[in-house]
Amino acid sequence: MVRSGPCDGEGTADGCRWIEIWVFVDRFDRFGVAGDWNLAGYLKGFWWEGSSLRLGMTISNGDGDSAAKDGGRERKRKRRAEPSLVKWKTEGEQKTYSSKLIEALRRVRGSSAAGAASATTDHSRGRAVREAADRALAAAARGRTRWSRAILCGRTLKRRVLPRAGRPKPVGRARAAERSKPPALKTKARVLGRLVPGCRKLPLPSLLEEVSDYIAALEMQVRAMSAIAEALSAVGGAPSAALAEGPM
Amino acid sequence: MSSRRSRSRQMSSSRITDEQINDLLTKLQAVLPEAHLRSTDRVSAAKVLQDTCNYIRSLHREVDDLSERLSELLANNDINSAQAAIIRSLLR
Protein backbone atom coordinates (compact mmCIF):
# COMPACT_ATOMS: atom_id res chain seq x y z
CA MET A 1 0.00 0.00 0.00
CA VAL A 2 1.35 3.35 -0.92
CA ARG A 3 0.47 6.48 0.94
CA SER A 4 1.43 9.78 -0.52
CA GLY A 5 3.01 12.36 1.65
CA PRO A 6 3.15 16.10 1.52
CA CYS A 7 4.97 17.88 -1.20
CA ASP A 8 7.96 18.94 0.76
CA GLY A 9 10.25 20.69 -1.56
CA GLU A 10 10.77 21.83 -5.02
CA GLY A 11 13.47 23.38 -6.99
CA THR A 12 14.50 24.35 -10.42
CA ALA A 13 17.29 22.87 -12.37
CA ASP A 14 18.04 23.70 -15.95
CA GLY A 15 14.59 25.09 -16.48
CA CYS A 16 12.86 21.97 -15.14
CA ARG A 17 10.73 21.97 -12.07
CA TRP A 18 11.59 19.25 -9.61
CA ILE A 19 9.08 18.35 -7.05
CA GLU A 20 9.79 16.02 -4.20
CA ILE A 21 6.98 13.78 -3.15
CA TRP A 22 7.17 11.55 -0.10
CA VAL A 23 5.68 8.10 -0.24
CA PHE A 24 5.84 5.56 2.51
CA VAL A 25 5.54 1.97 1.42
CA ASP A 26 4.57 -0.82 3.69
CA ARG A 27 6.52 -3.62 2.11
CA PHE A 28 9.83 -3.54 0.37
CA ASP A 29 9.81 -3.84 -3.36
CA ARG A 30 12.66 -4.02 -5.72
CA PHE A 31 12.78 -0.62 -7.25
CA GLY A 32 12.57 -0.31 -10.93
CA VAL A 33 12.43 2.21 -13.64
CA ALA A 34 8.88 3.37 -14.13
CA GLY A 35 8.79 2.74 -17.81
CA ASP A 36 10.25 4.75 -20.59
CA TRP A 37 10.88 8.40 -20.35
CA ASN A 38 9.30 10.77 -22.69
CA LEU A 39 12.33 12.49 -24.08
CA ALA A 40 10.56 15.77 -24.55
CA GLY A 41 9.25 15.77 -21.04
CA TYR A 42 10.63 16.66 -17.67
CA LEU A 43 10.79 14.76 -14.45
CA LYS A 44 7.93 16.04 -12.45
CA GLY A 45 7.99 14.06 -9.29
CA PHE A 46 9.85 11.28 -7.64
CA TRP A 47 9.68 9.73 -4.26
CA TRP A 48 11.55 7.62 -1.83
CA GLU A 49 10.46 4.09 -1.14
CA GLY A 50 12.19 3.00 2.00
CA SER A 51 15.70 3.90 1.03
CA SER A 52 15.28 3.48 -2.72
CA LEU A 53 14.30 6.25 -5.00
CA ARG A 54 11.30 5.48 -7.15
CA LEU A 55 10.55 7.29 -10.31
CA GLY A 56 7.26 8.94 -10.67
CA MET A 57 5.43 10.75 -13.32
CA THR A 58 6.89 12.53 -16.20
CA ILE A 59 4.89 15.39 -17.48
CA SER A 60 5.76 17.02 -20.70
CA ASN A 61 6.31 20.70 -20.99
CA GLY A 62 3.95 20.78 -23.90
CA ASP A 63 6.27 19.62 -26.63
CA GLY A 64 5.26 15.99 -26.49
CA ASP A 65 2.59 13.85 -25.03
CA SER A 66 2.47 13.52 -21.33
CA ALA A 67 3.68 10.16 -20.20
CA ALA A 68 2.35 9.67 -16.73
CA LYS A 69 3.44 6.36 -15.30
CA ASP A 70 1.66 4.77 -12.45
CA GLY A 71 4.23 3.86 -9.85
CA GLY A 72 1.89 1.32 -8.37
CA ARG A 73 1.68 -0.73 -11.53
CA GLU A 74 5.41 -0.57 -12.08
CA ARG A 75 6.12 -2.02 -8.68
CA LYS A 76 5.14 -5.42 -10.02
CA ARG A 77 8.17 -5.41 -12.29
CA LYS A 78 10.60 -8.01 -11.00
CA ARG A 79 13.79 -7.15 -12.83
CA ARG A 80 15.33 -3.77 -13.17
CA ALA A 81 16.46 -3.06 -16.71
CA GLU A 82 20.24 -2.89 -16.74
CA PRO A 83 21.47 0.55 -17.74
CA SER A 84 23.42 0.14 -20.93
CA LEU A 85 26.88 1.63 -21.02
CA VAL A 86 26.85 1.85 -24.78
CA LYS A 87 24.53 4.81 -24.87
CA TRP A 88 27.13 7.06 -23.30
CA LYS A 89 29.37 6.49 -26.27
CA THR A 90 26.83 7.33 -28.96
CA GLU A 91 27.12 10.57 -30.82
CA GLY A 92 23.42 11.25 -30.47
CA GLU A 93 23.62 11.13 -26.70
CA GLN A 94 26.57 13.47 -26.70
CA LYS A 95 24.84 15.93 -28.98
CA THR A 96 21.73 15.94 -26.84
CA TYR A 97 23.86 16.54 -23.79
CA SER A 98 25.83 19.29 -25.49
CA SER A 99 22.69 21.15 -26.49
CA LYS A 100 21.30 20.93 -22.99
CA LEU A 101 24.60 22.05 -21.55
CA ILE A 102 24.82 25.04 -23.87
CA GLU A 103 21.37 26.15 -22.79
CA ALA A 104 22.33 25.72 -19.16
CA LEU A 105 25.54 27.66 -19.72
CA ARG A 106 23.59 30.53 -21.20
CA ARG A 107 21.53 30.64 -18.06
CA VAL A 108 24.62 30.52 -15.87
CA ARG A 109 26.05 33.45 -17.72
CA GLY A 110 22.82 35.36 -17.40
CA SER A 111 22.55 34.82 -13.66
CA SER A 112 26.15 35.69 -12.93
CA ALA A 113 25.86 38.90 -14.91
CA ALA A 114 22.79 39.86 -12.93
CA GLY A 115 24.74 39.74 -9.69
CA ALA A 116 27.52 42.10 -8.75
CA ALA A 117 30.22 41.61 -11.29
CA SER A 118 32.99 41.99 -8.76
CA ALA A 119 31.48 39.43 -6.40
CA THR A 120 31.50 36.54 -8.83
CA THR A 121 35.00 35.19 -8.90
CA ASP A 122 36.32 32.93 -11.57
CA HIS A 123 36.10 30.06 -9.14
CA SER A 124 32.46 30.53 -8.26
CA ARG A 125 31.61 30.81 -11.94
CA GLY A 126 33.60 27.67 -12.60
CA ARG A 127 31.73 25.92 -9.85
CA ALA A 128 28.40 27.07 -11.27
CA VAL A 129 29.42 25.70 -14.65
CA ARG A 130 30.48 22.41 -13.07
CA GLU A 131 27.18 22.06 -11.26
CA ALA A 132 25.19 22.86 -14.38
CA ALA A 133 27.20 20.28 -16.30
CA ASP A 134 26.65 17.66 -13.61
CA ARG A 135 22.96 18.32 -13.44
CA ALA A 136 22.65 18.09 -17.21
CA LEU A 137 24.59 14.83 -17.08
CA ALA A 138 22.36 13.44 -14.38
CA ALA A 139 19.29 14.44 -16.37
CA ALA A 140 20.73 12.67 -19.39
CA ALA A 141 20.87 9.50 -17.35
CA ARG A 142 17.08 9.67 -17.24
CA GLY A 143 16.92 8.62 -13.65
CA ARG A 144 18.06 5.07 -14.21
CA THR A 145 21.02 5.19 -11.91
CA ARG A 146 21.47 6.04 -8.30
CA TRP A 147 24.25 8.54 -8.85
CA SER A 148 22.15 10.56 -11.28
CA ARG A 149 19.24 10.72 -8.91
CA ALA A 150 21.55 11.69 -6.06
CA ILE A 151 22.94 14.57 -8.09
CA LEU A 152 19.50 15.82 -8.98
CA CYS A 153 18.28 15.47 -5.41
CA GLY A 154 21.28 16.97 -3.75
CA ARG A 155 21.78 19.98 -5.90
CA THR A 156 18.31 21.39 -6.11
CA LEU A 157 16.34 20.15 -3.14
CA LYS A 158 16.95 20.42 0.54
CA ARG A 159 18.53 17.34 2.01
CA ARG A 160 16.19 15.15 3.94
CA VAL A 161 16.69 12.51 6.54
CA LEU A 162 14.98 9.47 5.10
CA PRO A 163 12.47 7.84 7.40
CA ARG A 164 12.84 4.08 7.32
CA ALA A 165 9.77 2.37 5.88
CA GLY A 166 9.75 -0.09 8.75
CA ARG A 167 11.89 -2.63 6.93
CA PRO A 168 14.17 -4.26 9.44
CA LYS A 169 17.62 -5.14 8.20
CA PRO A 170 18.77 -8.59 9.29
CA VAL A 171 21.95 -7.55 11.01
CA GLY A 172 23.46 -11.04 11.25
CA ARG A 173 23.50 -11.58 7.54
CA ALA A 174 25.00 -8.18 6.84
CA ARG A 175 27.88 -8.91 9.18
CA ALA A 176 28.51 -12.31 7.62
CA ALA A 177 28.68 -10.78 4.16
CA GLU A 178 31.14 -8.17 5.31
CA ARG A 179 33.45 -10.79 6.77
CA SER A 180 33.80 -12.38 3.36
CA LYS A 181 35.67 -9.31 2.13
CA PRO A 182 39.09 -8.41 3.48
CA PRO A 183 39.24 -5.07 5.25
CA ALA A 184 41.54 -3.57 2.61
CA LEU A 185 38.90 -4.10 -0.03
CA LYS A 186 36.25 -2.66 2.24
CA THR A 187 38.26 0.52 2.68
CA LYS A 188 38.81 0.93 -1.02
CA ALA A 189 35.17 0.19 -1.71
CA ARG A 190 34.20 2.83 0.80
CA VAL A 191 36.49 5.38 -0.83
CA LEU A 192 34.96 4.52 -4.17
CA GLY A 193 31.49 4.90 -2.72
CA ARG A 194 32.38 8.38 -1.54
CA LEU A 195 33.61 9.38 -4.97
CA VAL A 196 30.37 8.49 -6.70
CA PRO A 197 27.45 10.62 -5.56
CA GLY A 198 24.76 8.80 -3.68
CA CYS A 199 26.61 5.53 -3.32
CA ARG A 200 28.11 5.67 0.12
CA LYS A 201 26.20 2.85 1.70
CA LEU A 202 25.82 0.64 -1.33
CA PRO A 203 26.82 -3.01 -1.23
CA LEU A 204 29.68 -3.84 -3.53
CA PRO A 205 27.85 -5.39 -6.52
CA SER A 206 25.46 -2.46 -6.88
CA LEU A 207 28.30 -0.05 -6.28
CA LEU A 208 30.34 -1.54 -9.11
CA GLU A 209 27.41 -1.26 -11.50
CA GLU A 210 26.86 2.36 -10.58
CA VAL A 211 30.58 3.04 -10.97
CA SER A 212 30.75 1.66 -14.51
CA ASP A 213 27.82 3.79 -15.59
CA TYR A 214 29.21 6.82 -13.80
CA ILE A 215 32.60 6.48 -15.47
CA ALA A 216 31.03 6.13 -18.92
CA ALA A 217 28.91 9.20 -18.25
CA LEU A 218 31.88 11.21 -17.00
CA GLU A 219 33.85 10.34 -20.11
CA MET A 220 31.01 11.60 -22.26
CA GLN A 221 30.85 14.73 -20.17
CA VAL A 222 34.55 15.37 -20.73
CA ARG A 223 34.22 14.81 -24.47
CA ALA A 224 31.19 17.09 -24.74
CA MET A 225 32.67 19.88 -22.63
CA SER A 226 35.94 19.80 -24.55
CA ALA A 227 34.03 20.07 -27.80
CA ILE A 228 32.01 23.00 -26.48
CA ALA A 229 35.12 24.72 -25.21
CA GLU A 230 36.78 24.31 -28.60
CA ALA A 231 33.70 25.59 -30.37
CA LEU A 232 33.45 28.54 -27.98
CA SER A 233 37.07 29.50 -28.53
CA ALA A 234 36.55 29.25 -32.26
CA VAL A 235 33.45 31.39 -32.12
CA GLY A 236 34.90 33.75 -29.57
CA GLY A 237 38.03 34.18 -31.65
CA ALA A 238 36.14 36.36 -34.09
CA PRO A 239 35.54 39.75 -32.56
CA SER A 240 32.13 39.83 -30.97
CA ALA A 241 31.37 43.00 -32.87
CA ALA A 242 31.45 41.05 -36.10
CA LEU A 243 28.86 38.66 -34.76
CA ALA A 244 26.71 41.49 -33.54
CA GLU A 245 26.72 43.07 -36.97
CA GLY A 246 24.33 40.65 -38.50
CA PRO A 247 23.00 37.14 -38.32
CA MET A 248 25.28 34.54 -39.80
CA MET B 1 16.61 -9.27 -3.14
CA SER B 2 14.27 -10.19 -0.27
CA SER B 3 14.54 -13.85 -1.22
CA ARG B 4 18.28 -13.82 -0.55
CA ARG B 5 17.76 -12.71 2.99
CA SER B 6 16.74 -16.08 4.40
CA ARG B 7 19.33 -17.03 6.93
CA SER B 8 19.47 -20.67 5.94
CA ARG B 9 20.99 -19.64 2.64
CA GLN B 10 23.34 -16.99 3.84
CA MET B 11 26.56 -18.88 3.14
CA SER B 12 25.53 -19.78 -0.42
CA SER B 13 24.42 -16.23 -1.07
CA SER B 14 27.85 -14.87 -0.21
CA ARG B 15 29.44 -17.38 -2.60
CA ILE B 16 27.15 -16.27 -5.39
CA THR B 17 27.94 -12.68 -4.60
CA ASP B 18 31.68 -13.28 -4.84
CA GLU B 19 31.36 -14.59 -8.37
CA GLN B 20 29.14 -11.69 -9.23
CA ILE B 21 31.68 -9.31 -7.78
CA ASN B 22 34.48 -10.84 -9.77
CA ASP B 23 32.46 -10.52 -12.94
CA LEU B 24 31.69 -6.91 -12.25
CA LEU B 25 35.31 -6.21 -11.41
CA THR B 26 36.40 -7.69 -14.74
CA LYS B 27 33.87 -5.57 -16.55
CA LEU B 28 35.01 -2.52 -14.65
CA GLN B 29 38.63 -3.23 -15.44
CA ALA B 30 37.76 -3.30 -19.14
CA VAL B 31 36.42 0.22 -18.88
CA LEU B 32 39.51 1.64 -17.24
CA PRO B 33 42.23 3.15 -19.39
CA GLU B 34 45.23 0.96 -20.19
CA ALA B 35 42.96 -2.05 -20.09
CA HIS B 36 44.81 -3.45 -23.08
CA LEU B 37 48.07 -3.39 -21.15
CA ARG B 38 46.78 -5.66 -18.44
CA SER B 39 46.75 -9.43 -18.57
CA THR B 40 43.19 -10.55 -18.74
CA ASP B 41 43.76 -13.58 -16.54
CA ARG B 42 43.91 -12.19 -13.08
CA VAL B 43 41.76 -9.54 -11.57
CA SER B 44 43.26 -8.19 -8.41
CA ALA B 45 40.27 -6.68 -6.71
CA ALA B 46 42.26 -4.16 -4.73
CA LYS B 47 44.13 -2.95 -7.78
CA VAL B 48 40.96 -2.58 -9.81
CA LEU B 49 39.27 -0.60 -7.06
CA GLN B 50 42.34 1.58 -6.62
CA ASP B 51 42.64 2.22 -10.34
CA THR B 52 38.96 3.02 -10.52
CA CYS B 53 39.24 5.55 -7.72
CA ASN B 54 42.21 7.19 -9.40
CA TYR B 55 40.46 7.27 -12.73
CA ILE B 56 37.31 8.83 -11.32
CA ARG B 57 39.41 11.44 -9.53
CA SER B 58 41.23 12.29 -12.73
CA LEU B 59 37.94 12.57 -14.60
CA HIS B 60 36.62 14.89 -11.90
CA ARG B 61 39.74 17.01 -12.26
CA GLU B 62 39.29 17.17 -16.01
CA VAL B 63 35.69 18.25 -15.61
CA ASP B 64 36.74 20.92 -13.13
CA ASP B 65 39.41 22.23 -15.48
CA LEU B 66 36.97 22.26 -18.35
CA SER B 67 34.45 24.08 -16.18
CA GLU B 68 37.01 26.74 -15.36
CA ARG B 69 37.90 27.06 -19.01
CA LEU B 70 34.28 27.31 -20.04
CA SER B 71 33.55 29.89 -17.37
CA GLU B 72 36.45 32.02 -18.59
CA LEU B 73 35.24 31.72 -22.15
CA LEU B 74 31.76 32.64 -21.01
CA ALA B 75 33.04 35.63 -19.09
CA ASN B 76 34.61 37.05 -22.18
CA ASN B 77 31.92 36.24 -24.66
CA ASP B 78 28.31 36.10 -23.75
CA ILE B 79 26.48 33.40 -25.65
CA ASN B 80 23.62 34.94 -27.50
CA SER B 81 21.23 32.81 -29.44
CA ALA B 82 23.11 33.29 -32.68
CA GLN B 83 26.32 32.00 -31.18
CA ALA B 84 24.49 29.11 -29.56
CA ALA B 85 23.22 28.11 -32.98
CA ILE B 86 26.70 28.37 -34.41
CA ILE B 87 28.15 26.25 -31.66
CA ARG B 88 25.47 23.64 -32.13
CA SER B 89 26.21 23.49 -35.83
CA LEU B 90 29.91 23.15 -35.10
CA LEU B 91 29.19 20.21 -32.88
CA ARG B 92 27.09 18.45 -35.48
From TrEMBL, chain B:
Q: Which InterPro entries match?
A: bHLH_dom, HLH_DNA-bd_sf, PRE
Pfam families from the entry? bHLH_ILI (PF23174)
Work out whether the entry's keyword set contains Transcription.
Answer: yes
Q: Which UniProt keywords apply?
A: Growth regulation, Transcription, Transcription regulation
Question: PROSITE patterns of this UniProt entry?
Answer: BHLH
List, in alphabetical order, the Gene Ontology terms for molecular function in this entry. protein dimerization activity
The record, for Gene3D superfamilies, names: Helix-loop-helix DNA-binding domain (4.10.280.10)
All residue ranges annotated as the BHLH domain in the record: 5-59
Q: GO biological process annotations for this chain's record?
A: regulation of DNA-templated transcription; regulation of growth
Q: Does the keyword Transcription apply?
A: yes
Similarity comment text for this entry:
Belongs to the bHLH protein family.
Please give the name of this protein: BHLH domain-containing protein
Q: Which organism is it from?
A: Musa balbisiana (Banana)
Tell me the organism's taxonomic lineage: Eukaryota, Viridiplantae, Streptophyta, Embryophyta, Tracheophyta
